[in-house]
């Protein structure tokens, strides 16, 4: 079976759904293809910083989440070696700045999906190949589905994650392993946890961890550690929990261990931290003809600045603005003008994405510590006191409004 569409988005994650919402708000309908049989929510939760809330405001969905999740105004970093505690303020220079809010990932996906018509998302669509064809003097994207169906599109947006087939078609190089892995989970306290709305982090030699209350009953926790590219705990949540408690976090405070003990095992994940080298984003093809990428497909990064999901929301607003302006000025998706709109979008996002990848990697490398005395001193005496706030200022970026 063969069908033709105006805009096809590959992937129903944060970037894909947000892009579809942005396009809807500028009057353009998109079809979202998702390989899973339902909305996927790997990672359990994520923290959305002010730049993400500005993007969600532009998408018209922020109110669905701010009524449920409270902001964190400050956090604490505990050095496990010395016991020293540093306080970090999350309030910005602007008087109206708000702290980050950590949300259930599935709640964010649902908030976005609810804005779309029921026929906008097609599940169980595994992409096997992509090609470009000439059609009536212009280029169209041809998407081949595993079930034999073929979908042709005037515009194709790859939001298909770290190992994006669309990014590969554009010629972007594969991701590389950072040398670290991340464990993530959601702890549930039916009777309430009684903790303040504050971010707690712990740094040791080669390990960094922390937790953030989501609601009165749920706490999101994480741990990053040095690990080989292949980890032996990927498919066994009970083994993940045991390995964290008995090995990686055995010297952590009792409160942290208790939170890990209360984990909902279905939310636990252990995954290598991958990223695309920043100079390859700065110099790579982020768009070609009528095909482009957004979110992790464009700029996979380590989570050390909490900007993976936030920057995906920025991408959606910027792409929606460029396509919306193109449609408004030309009365539709005119091929040559669409190519320019996608190129302008890629140009606007290129250096922002490059800096986020580099800043995230640097932040993680320094905070990770390791065994070198000089690096520990730099982290504790210089990085947290003077550099972290400047690097973290990226969270106050405003991607603008939709047309």
TrEMBL record:
SUPFAM superfamilies: FAD/NAD(P)-binding domain (SSF51905). It holds the Pfam family FAD_binding_3. GO terms for molecular function: FAD binding; monooxygenase activity. It comes from the Eukaryota. Keywords: Monooxygenase, Oxidoreductase. Residues 6-326 form the FAD-binding domain. The keyword Oxidoreductase applies. Transmembrane segments: none annotated. Belongs to the 3-hydroxybenzoate 6-hydroxylase family. This is FAD/NAD(P)-binding domain containing protein. It comes from Trema orientale (Charcoal tree).
């Amino acid at each position: 079976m063969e069908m033709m569409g105006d805009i096809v988005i590959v992937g129903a994650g944060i970037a894909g759904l947000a892009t579809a919402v942005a396009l809807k708000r500028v009057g353009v309908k998109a079809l979202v293809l998702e390989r899973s049989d339902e909305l996927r929510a790997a990672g359990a939760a994520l923290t959305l910083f002010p730049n993400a809330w500005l993007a969600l405001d532009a998408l018209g969905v922020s109110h669905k989440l701010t009524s449920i999740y409270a902001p964190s105004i400050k956090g604490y970093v505990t050095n496990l070696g010395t016991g020293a505690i540093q306080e970090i303020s999350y309030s910005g220079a602007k008087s109206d700045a708000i702290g980050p809010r950590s949300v259930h990932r599935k709640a964010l996906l649902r908030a976005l999906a609810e804005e779309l018509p029921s026929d906008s998302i097609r599940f169980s669509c595994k992409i096997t190949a992509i090609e470009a064809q000439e059609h009536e003097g212009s280029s169209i994207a041809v998407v081949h589905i595993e079930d034999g169906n073929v979908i042709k599109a005037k515009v194709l947006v790859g939001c298909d994650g770290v190992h994006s087939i669309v990014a590969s078609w554009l010629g972007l190089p594969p991701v590389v392993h950072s040398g670290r892995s991340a464990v993530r989970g959601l702890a549930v306290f039916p009777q309430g946890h009684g903790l303040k709305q504050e971010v707690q982090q712990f740094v040791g030699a080669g390990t960094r961890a922390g937790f953030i209350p989501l609601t009165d009953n749920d706490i999101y926790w994480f741990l990053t550690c040095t690990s080989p590219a292949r980890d032996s705990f990927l498919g066994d949540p009970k083994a993940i929990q045991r390995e964290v408690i008995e090995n990686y976090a055995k010297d952590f405070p009792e409160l942290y261990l208790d939170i890990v003990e209360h984990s909902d095992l279905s939310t636990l994940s252990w995954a290598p931290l991958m990223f695309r080298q920043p100079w390859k984003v700065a110099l790579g093809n982020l768009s070609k003809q009528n095909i482009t990428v957004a979110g992790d497909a464009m700029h996979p990064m380590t989570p050390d600045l909490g900007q993976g999901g936030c920057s995906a929301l920025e991408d959606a607003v910027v792409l929606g603005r460029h396509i919306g302006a193109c449609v408004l000025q030309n009365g539709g998706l005119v091929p040559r003008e669409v190519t320019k709109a996608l190129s302008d979008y890629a140009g606007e996002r290129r250096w922002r994405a490059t800096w986020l990848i580099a800043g995230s990697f640097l932040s993680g490398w320094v905070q990770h510590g390791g065994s070198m005395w000089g690096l520990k001193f730099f982290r504790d005496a210089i990085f947290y006191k003077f550099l972290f706030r400047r690097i973290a200022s990226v969270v106050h970026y405003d991607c603008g409004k939709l047309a």
